[in-house]
């Protein structure tokens, strides 16, 4: 069974869309989406600096557009994701990409949604100095105790002992000064404490937008960050996308579900690499491919031909 996954914020790098925009029609498609996103996606994907694309209001629409663009190229010459893909999942903002691939949202509505999400989260991040720190390793109970001691939230659980702590910069500095035994801490290049209560204003903004969007039920299995569960209706997917802004990402549970569904191959959309690395470490016996540039398309299409169209076990 073929699975398509879409990465979250932090995966973007300067100029990552340059090779994709050499393909016929790609730049035109991105310009059309720029109107909906309210951003010059072509410039941000090709010329903008690391600091520019780190901005939440830029990074999130750019990531969704990149995922939809590369998925469109991958499936351009034959049956689409809804015929060939057994399941989709995304990490954080990547869930919006996954929702569009599953047919829950149109590409345009996905970009309208991510625009509001990014603006709401950027606004919330500006209100208080917050951030995120990856916490790798350490005894799980000791890590949880340190998180509780310093008031930080486990905003992401990426499996294999990889957590992301989120909170105020003061809280994260205190955690860094007194880390859990055996754990390694890496500050992340993000602008706020995403997936925590600090993002409540973003939830309010999306809750106002959601009733204006039309949804359809997923045409492939949609695996949710909230709890790793497959979500059967478009309305429920949209509700979860709204609430997800201030709730933890349980990528560990998503990977467990993909294994239970019978995943045999996972392709990660551009800018790829983060999720395939996590899948390699945590889901055994699954072929993986990071679709970083068009040079990876032949191998990706081989995986689609070999694993696509298989029914999942759910």
Task: Give the topology, please.
Blueprint: E1 2-6, H1 26-37, H2 41-46, H3 50-54, H4 56-74, H5 81-84, E2 87-90, H6 94-101, H7 107-127, E3 130-137, H8 140-150, E4 153-157, E5 162-168, H9 169-177, E6 183-187, H10 200-209, E7 221-223, H11 234-244, E8 249-250, H12 251-261, E9 265-268, H13 274-282, E10 287-290, H14 297-307
Parallel strand pairs: 1-2, 1-9, 2-7, 4-8, 9-10
Antiparallel strand pairs: 3-5, 3-6, 4-5
Helix pairs in contact: 1-4, 4-6, 4-7, 6-7, 7-10, 10-11
**Strand residue percentage:** 5-15%
CATH superfamily heading of the largest domain: Malonyl-Coenzyme A Acyl Carrier Protein, domain 2
Say how many strands there are: 10
Please report the number of helical segments.
14
* CATH C-level class of the largest domain: Alpha Beta
**By helix and strand content, what is the structural category?**
alpha/beta
List unreliable stretches of 5+ residues. Answer: none
Mean pLDDT: 95
In total, the number of domains comes to: 2
Strand order of the largest sheet: 7-2-1-9-10
Main β-sheet: number of strands, strand sense, barrel status?
A: 5 strands, parallel
Helix content: 40-55%
How many angstroms does the end-to-end distance come to? 11 Å
Task: Supply the CATH architecture of the largest domain.
Answer: 3-Layer(aba) Sandwich
Oligomeric nature of the chains: single chain
User: And the CATH topology of the largest domain?
Assistant: Malonyl-Coenzyme A Acyl Carrier Protein, domain 2
Order of helices and strands: EHHHHHEHHEHEEHEHEHEHEHEH
Shape: globular
Radius of gyration: 18 Å
